Amino acid sequence: MRKLILDADQLTMIPKLVNGIDMTDNGQAMDALGETGPGSAFSGIIAYAGQF
Questions:
Q1: Each residue of 2-48: pLDDT tens digit?
Q2: Is the dihedral of CA 7, 9, 13, 15 positive or negative?
Q3: How many helices (H) and strands (E) does the chain have?
Q4: I need a labelling partner for 4 at 20 to 30 A (CA). Which of 12, 19, 34, 36 fits?
Q5: What is the chain's alpha carbon radius of gyration, rounded to the nearest angstrom?
Q6: pTM exceeds 0.70, yes or no
């Protein structure tokens, strides 16, 4: 069962390997990082909640 779970997890990475990682400003959430500053958590910013 563990192998099945690990295999399924690895299979989800295939599209990332084929298509590449989104390096746009929106894909990297650069605006969110800039708004919060160093040492803050940006996962709860309301402006980005609808995009994820």
A1: 999 999 999 988 888 888 878 888 777 777 777 777 777 666 555 55
A2: positive
A3: 4, 0
A4: 19
A5: 15
A6: no
For residue 20, give both structure tokens.
């590449």
Within 10 angstroms of residue 35's Cβ, the number of other Cβ atoms is 13
Q: Are 27 and 51 in contact (CB under 8 A)?
A: no
Cβ atoms within 10 Å, residue 37 = 8
- Residue that is written with structure tokens 């690990």 in the block: 6
The residue with tokens 């500053």 is 37
- Extract the tokens encoding 2: 């563990």
